[in-house]
Every structure is written in structure tokens, then in C-alpha cells.
Amino acid sequence: MTIKLGTNPIAWSNDDMREIGGDIPLARCLAEAREAGFRGIELGHKLPRQAPVLRAVLAANGLELVSGWSSMALLERDAQAEFAAMAPHRALLRALGCRVVIVAETSNAVHGDRTVALSRRQTLSEAQWPLFCARLSRLSGLLAGEGLTLAYHHHMGTCIQTEAEIDRLMAGSEGAGLLLDTGHASFAGADPVALARRHRARIVHVHCKDVRADVAGRALADDISFLDAVLAGAFTVPGDGSVDFAAVLGELRGYAGWLVVEAEQDPARAEPLAYARLGFDHLTRFARAAGMRLEDGQ
Questions:
Q1: Is the pLDDT of residue 98 over 90?
Q2: Which of 37, 65, 266, 288 is at 20 to 30 A from 298, Cα to Cα?
Q3: Alpha-carbon gap, residue 118 to 107, rounded angstroms
Q4: In whole angstroms, what separates CA 137 from the centre of its chain?
């Protein structure tokens, strides 16, 4: 039951605002991720999507592919159609030996639109909840048939953001795993420690993101967009904000898989390698303090 530490390219090059870090080459991102100590990295928009090419690029930097995000539209199409739309993504993840597929409903999301305030996100109606959960359950089963586990990513600016929404999604769906994102949970006013405790059996992937509570609080008070909150510095790496990682990881005893530092910041303000090292060092310390067994060499 070992743990591996991974990261995400979003600290070097933002996926939702590609001009942020757009000048940073992929080669630098991968080399610095490994230099900081990470064993793996998630997909980002600069990584190739051809399995042989991606495998070679990662191997040259001593990295594994952790997983990758898939934007869903289950409010607009059924599970079979969603599964079909994910075919290239599924094939890539399987070819690279990944075990989880990160998904989030984005058909009604505002997190990628800098002109839309977080308060204007759309939520699920009472009529939509059972249909959405049923489709998610069905999609989870289809993915399981290919040896993949669905990891639902609750996210600011999407229809699954709050603690109550996360709880309802878990209660209403079968087979769907949860991606616990400490930063998005905290930003949304949820308690990541309580979420870890309550949904331990469903947590299949963990994004370790810290929050600068004062910045996040101002972002909500000023009712700005998610992207403007990111640029203002709402997120940071573990140990540099207000999240109690020792307590969160303490609730995840028995968890086996990846702990991923995924803390989007403006690389012009937060030097990626320096923060990658900081996040890796802090997360290593928190994981060991929680009694987690890190893979040899980490």
C-alpha cells in the first residue's frame, strides 16, 4: 500500500488561460518536476497525446503519467455517449498504465471564463440530480470494464463545488470514486478533513493544493472570476497556506495511489521550480507524519 508523489503542469503553464506560462517550454516543466523530486505528472495541454511519443517524453525525464482530466457533458448526453467521446483519452491513459480517470462536469461551468464571477455558477436542479447521478454511475461502470476508475473532481465554478454537493453526489451515485481536492474544497468553504473522513472509502485520487485564505476570502467577497482568483494567488502548494494537511492525510490511512501537488499559480509571480520543491518537501513531511508508506526513493 504505497504512495507516490506527483505534480501537474499547471504550475508551469495554465490550461484554462494558456497565455499564463505560455512561454515556458514543456522540456523545462518536465525536467523541473523531476528535479523537485516528483515521480509522476498529470496531463497538461503541452504534453503530446500520442502514446508512444508521450511515453518516450516522460521516460526521458524519469516520470510516469499519473492521470488526466476529462471535461464531461453528462447534463447534455447519456453515459454511453460520454464514454464514446472519451475514447481517445481512455486509450491514452490505459496505454500509459494509469488507473484513474479524472472527470468533472463542465457543460454548465464558469471556471474557465474570466468574465463570469464565481457567484454566477450554475447548480443542479432537483430534477437534474437523479439523472446526473444515474449517468455518472453508468459511466463509472463502463470505465471499470476497461480497468479504469472514475475520479470525480469537485471544482470551483462547476455544479459540484460545495461540501453538500459533494456529499449528495457520493450518496446518489454508485461506483464513482472521488478526487479529493483540498484546495477547491477549502476555497468553497468545505472542510477537507471532514470530507476525507466521511468519504475515505470513495477517495481514489488526491490533489494536494493549499489555499491562501485571505486571498480566497477577498475573491469571494469581491465576487470575481475563478481565473482572477487564481491570478491573485488564491492557491499555493502544500504547507504554504491554511489547509491542515497533517489532519487530511491522517484521515486517509490505507489509501494507495498518488498524492498530486496541483496548485495553479501565475509562474511570473510564483517561480515554478521553487514552489515545486517547496510543495514536494512539505507533502513528503506531511505524508510521513501521517504514517503513509512512500514508494522507495521518495
A1: yes
A2: 266
A3: 15
A4: 20
Q: Decide if domain 2-294 falls under CATH 3.30.450.40.
A: no
* Sign for the pseudo-dihedral over CA of 102, 107, 112, 116: negative
Q: What number of residues does the chain have?
A: 298
Set of cell numbers at residue 155: 471544482
Which one, of 69, 58, 73, 6, lies nearest residue 27 by Cα?
58
Q: For the segment 123-179, what is each residue's pLDDT rounded down to a tens digit?
A: 999 999 999 999 999 999 999 999 999 999 999 999 999 999 999 999 999 999 999
Query: Domain map of the chain by residue range?
Result: 2-294
Q: How confident is the model at residue 81 (pLDDT cuts 50, 70, 90)?
A: very high
Look up residue 7 and give its amino acid: T
Q: Is the pTM of this model over 0.85?
A: yes
**Cα distance between residue 3 and residue 234, in whole Å:** 27
String of DSSP letters for 33-54: HHHHT-SEE---TTS--SHHHH
The region, left, alpha or beta by phi > 0 then psi within -120 to 50, assigned to residue 126 is alpha
Task: Point out which residues pair with 96 in neighbouring strands.
Answer: none
Core vs surface per residue 153-188: b (16+ CB within 10 A) or e: bbbbbbbbbebebbebbbeebebbbbbbbbbbbbbb
pLDDT in tens, 21-54: 999 999 999 999 999 999 999 999 999 999 999 9
Buried b (16+ CB within 10 A) or exposed e, 218-250: ebbeeebbbbbbbbbbbbbbbbbbebebebbbb
The C-alpha cell that represents 111 in the structure block:
471556471
